[in-house]
Structures are given as C-alpha cells and as structure tokens.
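Async update (no meeting this week)

Hi team, since we skipped the sync, here's where things stand on the single-chain job. The sequence we agreed to prioritize is pasted below, unchanged from the tracker. I ran it this morning and attached the output directly underneath so nobody has to dig for it. Comments welcome in thread, and please keep replies under the output.
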Amino acid sequence: MLKNAENYVHEDKHKQACDQFKLICDKFNELKDYETASYFYKRWLDVASMKDITDKIIDAYVGLGTCEENVLNIEKAIENFETASYKASQRGNNYKP
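Output:
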C-alpha cells in the first residue's frame, strides 16, 4: 500500500495516493498504533495539500483528531477537528466524509 501511495504521488495521481494513505491509516488504527497512524495522516495531509484536494484534507484532519483523541491529547484533537470543520464550512455543504 505504501509503495502504491508514493508511486501515485510521483505519477501526479494525488487523489489515488490519498486513498492509499487512508487504507494505511485504517490498518494502523485497527492495530491501535495511533502514533504511526498519525504519521501517515500527516503524510496524507501533505499529499492532499499539494493539489488542494479539500475533501481529502478534511478527512486527514478528522483522522488526526481521532488519533489524538484516542491517546487523550484532547487539545490537539480539538484543534484538528476545528480545522476540519472550518475547511468543511469554507467548502460549503457538499462535504461527505
């Protein structure tokens, strides 16, 4: 999955790369390895930001918030959720997680 994600980035297929990073994050969340999941959410956020893919950016912030919440970093969780909410409100009512 990681190799696929990075290959998509190099091929300028950022949406597909984000989808692969989501799968990676989901796997680490299942394992309750929130530190590693956070690392890949940040990578996902970087990739989505390269092309300003708003839905993927929002999803990455929600994922980061959830990871922080799971390790009881409530302040950081709130910051990530607020950022996701702000970006969703800027986008309008068309956001679908």
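Quick observations from my side:
The chain has five helices and no strands.
The CA atoms of residues 61 and 80 lie 5 Å apart.
Reply here if anything looks off.
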